[in-house]
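Why this split exists: single-chain examples teach little about how molecules sit against one another. For that reason, every record in the complexes split bundles all components of an assembly together and asks for one structure covering all of them. Below is a record exactly as it appears in the raw files.
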Amino acid sequence: MAECHPVGFQWVMEAKARGAKVVHVDPRFTRTSALADLHVPLRAGSDIAFLGGIVNHVLRQEKYFREYVVAYTNAPVVLREDFRDTEDLDGLFSGFDPEARTYDPATWQYRGLEVQAASGQRDEQYERRTESMGRGEAHGSGGAPIGEEEPERDETLTHPRCVFQVLKRHYARYTPELVERVCGVPQDVFRQVCELVTENSGRERTTAFAYAVGWTQHTVGAQYIRTAAVLQLLLGNIGRPGGGILALRGHASIQGSTDIPTLFNLLPGYIPMPYAHPDETLDSFVKAEAAHKGYWGEMRSYLVSLLKAYWGEAAQPENDFRFDYLPRLTGSHSTYETVLAQREGTCRGYFLFGENPAVGSADTKLQRLGMANLDWLVVRDFSLIESATWWKDGPEIASGELRTADIGTEVFFLPAAAHTEKDGSFTNTQRMLQWHHAAVEPAGEARSDLWFTFHLGRIIREKLAASTEEMDRPLLDLVWDYPTRGPLDEPDAEAVLAEINGRDARGRPLSSYTQLKDDGSTACGCWIYCGVRADGVNQAARRKPGAEQDWVAKEWGWAWPANRRILYNRASADPQGRPWSERKALVWWDAEAGRWTGHDVPDFPVDRAPSYRPPPGARAADALSGVDPFVMQADGKGWLFAPAGLTDGPLPTHYEPQDSPFDNALYGRQRNPVRHLMPSLPDNRYQPSGSEPGSEVFPYVATTYRLTEHHTAGGMSRWQPYLAELQPEMFCEVSPGLAAERGLEHLGWATVVTARGVIEARVLVTDRMVPLRVQGRTLHQVGLPYHWGPNGCTTGDAANELLHLSLDPNVHIQEAKAMACDIRPGRRPRGAAAVELVREYCRRAGITERTGTEP
Amino acid sequence: MVPPAEFGSYYGRPVLKRPVWKPLDIAGYLFLGGLAGGSSVLAAGAGASGHGALARPLQVGAFGAISLSLVALVHDLGRPGRFLNMLRVVKPTSPMSIGSWLLSGYAPLAGAAAASALSGRLPRVGRAAGAGAALLGPAVCTYTAVLISDTAVPTWHDGHRELPFVFGGSAVSAAAGLGLLAAPVAQNGPARRAAAFGAALEIGATRLMTRRLGLSAEPLHTGRPGRLMRAAELLTGLGTALALGAGHRDRRVAAAAGAALLAGSAALRFGVFLGGVRSAEDPKYTVLPQRERLDAEHRAAG
Amino acid sequence: MGFFTDTSVCIGCKACEVACKEWNAIPEDGLELTGMSYDNTGGLGADTWRHVAFIEQSRPPGGVWTVADHGRVDVFAEAQRLGRPAGDGERIAPVAPEGRTELRWLMSSDVCKHCTRAGCLDVCPTGALFRTEFGTVVVQQDVCNGCGYCVPACPYGVIDQRPDDGRVWKCTMCYDRLGSGLEPACAKACPTDSIRFGPLEELREQAAERVRVLQEAGVEGARLYGHDPQDGVGGDGAFFLLLDEPEVYGLPPRPVVTTRDLPAMWRRAALAAVTVAAGVAACCLRRAR
Ligand SMILES: Nc1nc2c(c(=O)[nH]1)N[C@H]1C(S)=C(S)[C@@H](COP(=O)(O)OP(=O)(O)OC[C@H]3O[C@@H](n4cnc5c(=O)[nH]c(N)nc54)[C@H](O)[C@@H]3O)O[C@H]1N2
Ligand SMILES: Nc1nc2c(c(=O)[nH]1)N[C@H]1C(S)=C(S)[C@@H](COP(=O)(O)OP(=O)(O)OC[C@H]3O[C@@H](n4cnc5c(=O)[nH]c(N)nc54)[C@H](O)[C@@H]3O)O[C@H]1N2
Ligand code: SF4
Ligand code: SF4
Ligand code: SF4
Ligand code: SF4
Ligand code: SF4
Ligand SMILES: [Mo]
């Protein structure tokens, strides 16, 4: 965190100054470790075993916050008889289909109640949830809602099939001994962590977890976070001050770009993107995707308001508000599928706005080969990044695999304006929007992305104006009327914010998503952002200093939803509505006033008494009882066990990374059985693992990461002399032990090889890289920053040449954080010889297109 | 005491910045300044004692040396104009400031003295100027010691007690050397005696200094500076021996002695200069003495 | 006004270095990988007015901290030690309990000390270096004549010459910013408040309190450096809280402003001058025949 979120880390330092203990769990000793009270080095890719071990400790030692767990989580809920756990099926959950490599999550559901997830894979229940609807009903109010009654609960938590007991069995084997064997964390150190976490959780104290891509970039990435969620729910650390799981985000507004997504499978506000189903209507979509209870019960209002924002007058009740205009998904269209589509020639044009895949994306070679097969490529960036110049000076030109003359791709480079040159908002990790005003006009031909997108749309619409084609209607019917100003005709960013905030039938700005209607009388570009421009005031631009307001600082910027600073904060009070402790009071029930009050904006129907129990048949928010703090959840509870939403299981389970020198010590299944596995291509081979023959060819574990001094694929740092001089060369970090084992000299050169590629780097021998004892042998890990590429003030090989395309099945992220590799002294071969070296390694490891692909 | 072998440092990097002065310019400047100052004094003495044939070349030599020394200084500054900035202020805390004023007072006098010595015109003015130069001469040859001592460079600074005597002696032997080179044997008496005096002062003071300094003197014993210091002592000693031995009989011996003395003086200045530079480059010479002082203070404080 | 740099909260982000270069438009000075941990700047100089030092230390539990210099490791000798049975002497996790090595990564942002008795300023013959109304020490670039005297005069090895034009450069404590009521760029950029800017008296109080807290918390080696107005340079305008001996950070343990001895030097020089005059005179006593 100190490395990558230095400005955010100041708050960790403040907490530390007030006595907080900081534990850093990371394979490497980093700048964060230097400031932590305890650094715990572990094997990259083993965190589920580590966290699962803590879960097991909490359950066995009875350290969980029982009252909280019983009242606010789904621990008491009884599961279906036909559910089978990985303990029963040696690493598989029930519902596995080996051919399709997918799970049918039906058996993961609660007994007698079908719940929909608040996010994630919601479409997987489509068929089942819509089958009750005959075609005729399709335009009606929809069929009988599934499972109205409360699920069966056992508040004693003793029912053999209640979530709590299932959880206990699932993690029973995640003992300190196992943690030591799998993670390489000595038992005494592990116990130290368990104590620190449990001692600091409960009524009076809370513990927070902060993570970023050290947890996400794995073939089981989403499940890493789930494990932390399970742990935090058990300890009662969610919805309370000082608790929670903080996702430290990436690019300055990457949070904003998931809220109003640049992701293929989401619409604004986490409304799922519809899949292609025959005769799907707005109703059947909502019926399938929306929850019955909680705020997702209002999905129809959010979606209709969005469609009104998109298509305005053209969106009417009789035409289903132009729901049919929305594109449909036919499967995963992640950036990696797109690359394959480019190679197959089905994807012919590509926009790169603020992305440098030739350096930043996994298996960069494949990225470049894909782009080399396009008709056109548009790159909007500050400088001539590798993704804009690969066709003349990329590694494949050097190796002779590509010849500039043969490349048909027409590449356009358009200079982009920086954030200092345009108005707009950043949404940070706390879901807080902060507005920034342009300081200067963009220089030369540089233009903002808003400018480009608006005028591109305008011109296309002008060209199509005369068209009578059905397929052009969605474009022509779009509301595309943003006012522009200044010499550059820059669209008014605040007009866009106004559209996102939403307006009522009379065009007045809305102030809360609770005002959204499903009858088309409201328009809102992103329901969770509704209120950011309440009263027509840009709430994101508020800058009242912290010293001039209370510790929640509600008047600095604006946080979605409804300017709440801590989500699910109803959980900060006990079931009767009293704070769990004065020390940790946040919101509470004021009986006299008959409403929720407190320091933060209550994340709960403000007048809903703790004693309230919904009448039968109640739906959406009305169906939330007074003790349902998790208002977005279909059952109002925090999910220890996820009955829906995940493709790879209801409970986090340790699997080895795609390429690992070790066998899975817990189950017969080596890897995540439903990992999102891209086809094994000549340029994307997988490696043998553990005891599979040939895995000894790649005996070390490499992990990739960032340096404070550089930014991601380097476009914003390698071109800056002041940053370049601070980290002037690509290097790798190795322990003295590994240096000795492989004859690597400090400041000399090393060559790192995987089945995908080979790179070279200068060697930094450091005690900060700690050898671990894993499964009885010494494991050395190799640290590789991934910022370098061939262009800029400082150049070097890109670590991503080494990565494979086995992805997390829920979020399709690459496994950048743990892969087996080999390292040897000296510089890498040049040109074709480099390619030959990789082939030779593959031969030695006996790698075929089948290697590493079994489920 | 023997300093501990290992000591803390930042990757063995120097604590101090190495003096940026170019050795040839500044060590040369030290030597020439000394030669000039010494020569003026000896010239005056010689003149007064009727050794005109010794005085005249010394006057000329003094002016020649001081002119060259100024050239060296300006060359080190880069642009001639920059020397004028030196005369913006008078700063007692800055030996270079004082030195600059000193030189601007001394150089014209030395010039006038040399002019009249060469031309034989205005002998009275010449004598007066010579006397003036002789008055400033001793300062000119010893202030350079303060110039380098007034830095953080361990060897230079720690030597500040003896260094003025070292430089003074070295200046006198240099002047004597010049005299022996230029004057007829019949007239070189004062030069021979000055050689003996200068050498004694230079060598004595140097030995005293290095003994007292301990660690800070190490750079003066080792490496190139060490070789230069040894050469200096050898040449100065040799020159003196020759001068006293046969300098009064044989012109060639006298000349050889003179050359040796000049070379010895130059070697000493380069030795001291480079020794100082080395002491700045190696953190050991900065850290260890300070560490000792600190620990001593701690012990005193109990 | 001055700086109190609390290295115990420095996260080594180098924002101070970059902010300084940006604000003062200092040229980039070299893309060299030094191998000195994450320090690729090396030290203060004419084109580096803030420098963040990185020191990697390890020790057996309870032992003394030592700096590992892997630049000097003979990997083949090291290789001999390999293949030993598990655990023994093998460096495992850098956390306290027995058998393991503790690691410590010291980071410290260095800067001109703006000495109360500044050697550089004292020896400057042109008056280019001067004491500002804020008590800081600044070079007037239009006056500096590149004589280079200040360079060896600085006991901290801070100020240095730019080879191109020979003039010297160093931290100005953002003289221009102070003039317009802004805090220095480096302090402004520091996320953890490791660099604190303010009136020295206040900073000294804060510092004293901070060491007390750290020492109570059992942080060994916490000490102040350059805070004492009685020290050899009359106290630093930029002082530090360090976690190890100053020399470990490349700082002199007990610097003294060279001009403290200047009067003595002048006296000795005068004495020497008299000696020379008298000696030479004596040599000239005997008149020529
Ligand atoms: N200076 C700087 N700041 C940045 C960025 C940058 O490039 N430079 N990038 C921004 C972006 S886009 C993002 S996404 C964030 C990312 O922020 P971080 O996630 O902090 O960035 P990383 O350095 O990639 O990964 C963090 C740590 O994960 C560790 N790690 C690797 N494998 C494992 C593992 O299996 N388990 C555990 N527990 N740790 C592991 C690595 O050693 C590394 O220290 O940073 C943002 N901030
Ligand atoms: N091996 C490995 N690979 C990784 C990761 C890892 O940890 N290890 N991390 C992954 C993560 S988390 C991320 S986020 C990616 C990042 O990978 P990329 O996003 O591909 O890399 P960046 O360098 O962040 O690319 C951003 C580009 O946007 C440009 N830019 C900045 N502002 C603007 C703007 O306003 N408009 C336009 N048009 N351009 C702009 C910058 O100049 C820069 O070139 O890398 C991923 N890849
Ligand atoms: S770059 Fe921006 S987002 Fe990253 S730490 Fe600095 S301030 Fe925060
Ligand atoms: S630290 Fe050096 S440069 Fe800075 S004021 Fe003191 S003597 Fe001058
Ligand atoms: S270099 Fe400039 S600042 Fe330094 S002493 Fe000479 S004139 Fe003064
Ligand atoms: S005070 Fe100003 S000049 Fe000095 S280091 Fe900080 S930013 Fe640089
Ligand atoms: S900005 Fe602050 S925290 Fe960052 S390196 Fe400089 S002093 Fe340390
Ligand atoms: Mo990211």
